[in-house]
Amino acid sequence: MKLYVTGDGIGREAEDHSATVELLDLDHADIGSALEAGLKSEDFAAAPVKSRSELSELSLGPPVSRPGKVVCIGVNYASHIEELRTVMPSFETPERPIFFLVPGSAVTGPNDPIVLPRRWPDQVDYESELAIVIGTRAKNVDARDAWRYVAGLTMANDVSARDIQMQAMGGHEFNLTHAKGLDGFKPMGPCLATLDEFNTPPDVRIQCKVNGEVRQDASISDLVHDIPTCIAHVSTFMRLDPGDVLLTGSPAGVGFFQGLFLRAGDVVEVSGEGIGSMRNVVVREDQE
To answer: Is the pLDDT of residue 167 over 90?
Structure first.
């Protein structure tokens, strides 16, 4: 089942998998608030339909508009580690998932602009990532049980200010939240795909295009730490609540290693097999 957040509420893809969305009679603005209220996949499947619209006619928001936590896993693809070693030859594969948090205010919709801040940074990069939306409160989770805490999968673009990130990694005044948590730096969508849409466990191909050129193309089978391991590890440090979002890492092909940073007018398309595509145009802050 694919669930969409629209200007008219939560919708689900029609059973015939057409481009029709059935808008549901639910008293929740987005999927995140519905999950916080205790709704499960079966509740979305059974909800009455109030109207139908073509997907192309709907204004889409992120599945969760203001997550309590956005947890980002870093350097989690073998291919990304290999490209990182071109500038850091001694970098070792992490024994455990590396993670950090960014604010919920960084989240934006699947077709919203990526806004380059007026003052800085100048080296804004893209990172296509599969994102996990938590459906059930999770604390000290055993990796063998981790999938039962997942509401579904969506896509995210972990937009990053590399110049700030390099200063953060150098131990100066900044940290990764400064580099990756700017307003609108986490587009998400276009839908939440529940786990019945995938094989068990899922093996999703993700891709990123900039101005039509494929920059990233990989399968999550290349993850160093798989999704259950990441959920279990994070949950030992902090409770994961319904509506929290976990970004799982990005594969090789980011702009930093090619000297290709985003500029106003660029079009970034991030897609996930079985989930769909986002299309975000890059603009300057004074162009909004």
So the answer is: no
Residue 41 C-alpha from the chain's centroid: 20
* Residue of 153, 180, 164, 174 whose CA lies nearest to 275: 153
In a domain, 171, yes or no: yes
Number of domains into which the chain is organized? 1
Cα separation, 104 vs 176, whole angstroms: 15
User: What are the start-end ranges of the E strands in the chain?
Assistant: 2-6, 9-13, 20-24, 49-54, 60-61, 70-74, 98-102, 107-108, 114-116, 124-125, 128-134, 150-157, 160-161, 186-193, 205-210, 213-219, 245-247, 267-272, 276-284
- What is the H or E stretch that residue 33 is in? helix 31-36
* Domain boundaries, position 235: 62-287
Residue 158: inside a domain, yes or no? Answer: yes
DSSP 219: E
Per-residue pLDDT tens digits for 50-79 = 999 999 999 999 999 999 999 999 999 998
Phi/psi at 119 (5° precision): -85, -50
pLDDT for res 174: 58
| Domain presence at residue 10 | no
DSSP reduced 3-state for 58: coil
Q: What is the pLDDT of residues 244-269, one digit of tens each?
A: 999 999 999 999 888 899 999 999 99
Listed in sequence order, the residues at least 6 apart from 91 whose beta carbon sits closer than 8 Å to its beta carbon are 75, 81, 84, 85
Chain mean pLDDT for the chain: 92
**Please, what is the Cα angle at 259 between 255 and 261, to 5 degrees?**
55
d(CA 8, CA 205): 30
pLDDT at 9: 96
